[in-house]
# Entry
Amino acid sequence: MHPIVRWFHQLGSPPTFDRFATRWSRIFYVAAVPVLLLGMWQGLFVVPAEQTQNDAFRIIYIHVPSAWMSLFVFALMAFYAVIALVWRIKICEILAMACAPMGAGFTLITLLTGSIWGKGTWGGWWDWDPRLTSELILLFLYLGVIGLYHAIDDRRSAARAAGLLAIVGVGLLPVIRYSVDWFGGLHQRQSINVFGTNAVRPELIAPLWWMVVATKLWFVGSLLAKARADNLAREAGKAWVGERFGDTAPATSEELPR
# Structure
């Protein structure tokens, strides 16, 4: 077996994943802080005001990274769900379900910041624009995954059912991405591209990329931390949990750190 394949196989073991997540969640959190501060400092104090929106445009440094993450996290959740359903890997079930609350948070931030931005540019807090409406449906999908997961007592059955909903919901992602091109509406067309020409002035872009990197670093750290906590909760009572925390007897869920 190739060493990389063997490493991924070993990572599916709850004790191995616990060690991995403990170490790397801290690393990603520490890495996220300076990048986040740099992006916020440049976005708030360094870049000049935009020609038409003045300082109101600065909300872009929160809105756009959150919007991108709302789609990315859902796709990642569905990816883990597919692996969990096909290969029955418990850690992937845990990772998929750990994605849901964070993805819902990013989606909520996207909707709130978009509403604030829209009030200044469109003159209203909300419009049933295709992009806004599809993003709202995405939030409902996230909440549906979370609700379904907690509605079933057996954790593995719950993760599979909620994961199936996530897989079905992936079909919404291209609708959100291309809704402006397909259906029009008030929302502006794509003006920022990872590859290709940007409609936004170059000096306004740098803080955005820092914020994009920061949100991804923070997300990975949070995902590992949340998955580790869920993994420990599922494994409560197992010998390795007791040994990990220095107990001679298997740990119970009340003894686990929160």
About this structure: Residues 248-258 have pLDDT under 50 and may be disordered.
